[in-house]
């Protein structure tokens, strides 16, 4: 089956429009976070500590904003930031040794 059905009432049509707009907005936010994360991990692979720290701040800000907007649950955002911070710490310890 899987065909799309049209809403039967005007209020359902409005909810459908709203959810479609929110879905697109959330998708854009998630995409920008993934791009920033990819740039951060590239800086880590290149062993560029200063660049990695800068990229880390950018990713964390985007994740916090997304969590505040309801794209991510607070715990999910915290987990993502923690994992990125762990990578950054490993880079710093590796560059000190």
UniProtKB/TrEMBL annotation:
Protein name: Small ribosomal subunit protein bS20
MF terms in GO: small ribosomal subunit rRNA binding; structural constituent of ribosome
One GO process term, biological-process aspect: translation
Organism of provenance: Marispirochaeta aestuarii
UniProt record similarity statement: Belongs to the bacterial ribosomal protein bS20 family.
Keywords linked to the UniProt accession: Ribonucleoprotein, Ribosomal protein, RNA-binding, rRNA-binding
Listed GO CC annotations: small ribosomal subunit
Protein role: Binds directly to 16S ribosomal RNA.
PANTHER family listed in its UniProt record: 30S RIBOSOMAL PROTEIN S20 (PTHR33398), SMALL RIBOSOMAL SUBUNIT PROTEIN BS20C (PTHR33398:SF1)
Ranges for region Disordered: 1-29
Biased composition (Basic residues): 12-29
């Amino acid at each position: 089956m899987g065909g799309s059905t049209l809403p039967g009432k005007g209020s359902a049509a409005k909810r459908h429009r709203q959810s479609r707009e929110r879905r697109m907005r959330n998708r854009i936010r998630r995409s920008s976070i993934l791009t920033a994360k990819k740039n951060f991990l590239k800086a880590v692979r290149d062993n560029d500590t200063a660049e990695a720290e800068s990229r880390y701040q950018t990713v964390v800000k985007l994740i916090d904003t997304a969590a505040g907007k309801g794209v991510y649950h607070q715990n999910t955002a915290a987990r993502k930031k923690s994992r990125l911070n762990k990578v950054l710490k490993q880079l710093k310890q590796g560059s000190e040794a």
